[in-house]
């Protein structure tokens, strides 16, 4: 990703900065619209729990602990029941869509831009090169199909589609589509 695009992506408010700029209720309403108003969707409930966790960090100490407890209990529930692990230390932008549940892991220091979506089995993580406080950086308008994995401190540009079961371990420029090769059809041996 060019340096100017990377700086612009980093400058957009995400995480607690987004909550401070827009206000918690405005962000929650936008999340509800993004998830088509379906309050029962596990992705929406997990995202709202994440938003409460990031909001807790902006509160005075007494309220911070109370909101932090709500986040902690919600995080455990979403991880153990829905199979979606989303830490409040991640930096997520606006209109993030968690389309399905189960097997979704978002690295604790991942940074995700606006208008992104993930589906079941998506993992953003760190490989063997751990750098404290850093994780994958995802641009705006990026979609991840089921089973996609992002490994390492990589940067994915804006307007990228990551196909099913892709493993991304290097930087991806903007305006790209990633797909794995199609399976080969091999005749069976007679017998």
From TrEMBL:
- Reaction equations catalysed: L-serine + acetyl-CoA = O-acetyl-L-serine + CoA
Position of the signal peptide: none
Top class in the EC scheme = transferase
The domain of life is Bacteria
Keyword Acyltransferase attributed: yes
**InterPro entries from the xrefs?**
Hexapep, LbH_SAT, Ser_O-AcTrfase, Trimer_LpxA-like_sf
- Gene Ontology MF term list: serine O-acetyltransferase activity
Q: What EC identifiers does the entry list? A: 2.3.1.30
Asked if Mitochondrion is a keyword of the record, the answer is no
Q: What is this protein called?
A: Serine acetyltransferase
Q: Which organism is it from?
A: Halovulum marinum
**Organismal lineage:** Bacteria, Pseudomonadati, Pseudomonadota, Alphaproteobacteria, Rhodobacterales
